[in-house]
Amino acid sequence: MRLPRSLAVVFALFLGVLPLSVLAHKESDAYLSLHSDSADHHRLNGQWDIALRDLDFAIGIDANHDGAITWGEVQARRAAIEQYALGRLTIKGDGLTCTMQPTGQKIDAHTDGAYDVIFFDAICDKNIPSKLTIVYNLMYDLDPYHRGIVTIHADGKVAGAVLGPEHPVATLDMRDPDRWGEFKSFLVDGIWHIWTGLDHILFLLSLLLPAVLIRRRNGPLQPGLRGTAALADGSGTLMALVPSGPRYRWEPVESFWPAFLEVIKIVSAFSLSHSITLSLAVLGIVHVPSRLVESGIALSVMVAAMNNVYPLVHKRLWLVAFSFGFIHGLGFASALSGLDLPAGAMAASLGGFSCGVEIGQEAIVLALLPLIFLARRTVFYQRTVLRWGSLLIVFVAGGWFVQRAFNVLIPGFSKLLPS
Amino acid sequence: MNPIREGSLDEARQGIRRVVLRLFLCLLPLPVTVSAQTDRAIPYIPRDASVVLQHVPPATDPRVRAFDLLRADFDRHPRDSIKAVALAKAYVNYGRSTGDARFLGRAMAVIDPFMKQPAPPIPVLLMHATIQQSRHFFEASRQELAHILKLDPDSGQAWLTLATVAMVQGDVDLANKACVQLANNAGNFMGMVCSASLRSLTGHGKQAYVMLSMVEDPGPKAPPAIKAWIEGLMADIAVRLGEPAVAETHFKKALQETPDDNFLLADYGDFLLGQKRPQAVVDLIGNNTSSDTSFLRLVLAESMLGSPRAAADAEEMSQRFLAMDRRGSHVYRREQAGFVLQIGHEPQRALALATQNWTVQRAPKDVLVYLQAALAAHDPAAARPVLDFLARTHLDDVRIQPLVVQLNAATADVGTRATAPASESVR
User: Fold this and answer.
1) Is the ipTM of this complex over 0.90?
2) Is A88 left (phi over 0), alpha (psi -120 to 50) or beta?
3) Rounded to the nearest 5 degrees, what angle is found at the Cα of A379, between the Cα atoms of A378 and A381?
């Protein structure tokens, strides 16, 4: 048969649609498995197997382009691989995004070749996820037939989904909502929030220090004490504010229980008011700009400490605690910002956090009160601790106030700032 | 960045539900195997940095250099659909010759932005339909080709692809129409190859063989792939005509042209297995075990030989099938049916797979595995759609005829036996 000259053109045209081919390998897959961590309910241990061929195509692994990917080449690209892959995966626990943290790298042999194994932890520190949402975007722009085969192992149960560019999202039930677990977990958070929140501690301390003393008006019959107080005042920075010598003196309380009762009143009042604003802020009913809240807290610490040096309020210290508690509550709320949970989980988390804050501050009070009760008669306590300690608090809180209110950085103060 | 569009949230939810449901149904009968799969591969740290883990196309491969040039060209002109199609075509051709399915996805990603346009250019549509066909999405491909041919009735390439799809689907009328149109638009050579292929499937094998022998040598300018294609077609026809020696000659000629062609290796391997020559299959496949289709033929041959490796390799093969199931890929249902039947000795499952496969493709090998499974499962009634298909198309194949005779005998047998107890069982 005679063939036309333009046959070569025809051949070229049809090369793309030649006979039926068979595919030697399955298309691109990656295997993502998440295991709940039995020791830490906020943590998921992840393992993600991604084909080296896919990674090479996406970001280049075969550094010397010799067609053979070595373990050395894979190791050299570890950071890039982790950045590429983990940046294309979002894990959410009950709608809150969990933080991804790579923890290791290995190799796995699958049926169609070697895979890089990324070990990572997904840390869902805001809650104990009951529903897990996975948003899977690996290879979405490079291969529409890529599939992420996801398996979740949680408390002995297994769930799975197949995700890909057309179906990037799956929501899987991990476990029944664990309200008690969430409550406990937030309880611990609340305790640590108080213990690491120096501004809250200093506020409490300022109210606590004078609780073992009674302030009495200075009469003419006690020159010795008056002299002491005058010396103290005279050496203080507040000398100008004191018009005619000290009119008050501190006397130790006689017995422990009245002092204890006083402290309980202060702490309870503080708790009540900060719980109110904490709830309102977390539930989104009240919103106060963080700058205002933070500088308000600093101001409250200053005022409370100043009151020990230059007393304005003594009888009803709980009122001071109560009124400033509102602003501290708004501050606590920032620790829970972005918490957008279903109602039940929200109640458990918020309740747990409030109780945690309560326990945290009670612990401080209970540890401190016996000590200051025993020390209350000493000059060291009355003069050094109460007066100079309070002045130091005023100084520190003043620095915070300036920094927070006027947004200026004072060297050294940032280290004292509670995170 | 985020591919979920707000507007299609419900759609996405439904999609997820579907995926989860499908996965659930998929996992239902396989709880043990799933855990086996997850435990099987244990991550390890290689001995040292010089250990080679994976081979990828090296930069010295001219095809890879061609990719790089086309990719660079396309990156400079990201809105140029012609350049996109050129790159996609290079990926598809590479994927087809090596059998690496990943390249089909990569090609699809290149043309994807153009497919989202309100009226994508015809070459883009054609590439899309070609990729669909390569991934065995025949029905989708066919509909897209019909659309393309409405826009451009003279597209020889579209007619050829449509003819190929129609033949796989067993749609003789459509295939015939496509071959005629192909001859009109792309010349006698293509028209003749197309018609010969079709006639070989409709009881005119000898005529088809003669037609192809007329174009067997298309001249020195023809690319090896074209020559291998024609030799492969002739080999297949000879197999169906019961001329193994002739088939052998054509397979060898085809392999001379394209020695590593994945399709050809599998096809020749099937022929050798059919000839009960398992050792020849082992020699043919050698170390080329990374290809699933080659490996399957090796496993079947090892089983036939009673090789000590047979059990372990069969397990490996079922893992590969499982991995495909897990991703929801059903490209190899025919192969899986044969594997389940001959290695797993599970005729019911094989029949179920063959039945599902029949809804997608109806080539002679699909007929063969379906009838074998129906016979092994003692379910001649299940073979009815295939027997009807054979009566309709007059497909002639020496491997199939004895099975048809057996099935007809079994049907008659069941029929006579059924008359007596029927009155009892129907109540």
Assistant:
1) no
2) alpha
3) 70
Could you give the CA distance from residue A150 to residue A141 in angstroms, rounded to a whole number?
A: 19
- Nearest CA to CA, how far is B13 from chain A (Å)? 8
Domain boundaries, chain B: 187-257, 330-415
CATH 1.25.40 correct for B330-415: yes
Residue B128 pLDDT: 95
Could you report the per-residue pLDDT of B62-75, keeping only the tens digit for each?
Answer: 888 888 899 999 99
Compute the distance between CA of residue B161 and CA of residue A17 in angstroms, rounded to an integer.
6
> How close A73 comes to chain B (CA, Å)?
8
- Quick check: A240 pLDDT over 70? no
- pLDDT tens, B7-35? 344 444 444 444 444 444 433 333 333 33
Whether residue B295 contacts residue B320, with contact meaning beta carbons closer than 8 Å, is answered with yes
* C-alpha closest to that of A154 among A95, A238, A93: A93
3-class secondary structure, B320 = helix
Is the pTM value of this prediction over 0.80? no
- Does the pLDDT at position B263 exceed 60? yes
Q: Within a 10 A sphere around the Cβ of A238, how many other Cβ atoms?
A: 14
Domains B187-257 and B330-415 share a fold: yes
Q: Does A157 touch chain B (CB under 8 A)?
A: no
Side by side, the strands of the sheet bearing A96-97 are A96-97, A89-93, A131-136, A169-173
CATH 1.25.40 describes domain B187-257: yes
The whole-angstrom distance between residue B82's C-alpha and the CA centroid of its chain comes to 28
Q: For tokens 């590429």, what's the residue?
A: A84
Helices B156-169 and B188-200: angle between axes, nearest 10 degrees: 0
Chain A residues touching residue B217 (CB < 8 angstroms):
none
Please tell me the distance from the alpha carbon of residue B157 to that of residue B159, in angstroms, as a whole number.
5
Binary contact (B51, A70; C-beta < 8 A): yes
Neighbours of B26 (CB within 10 A): 15
* Residue A281 tokens, joined: 């802020």
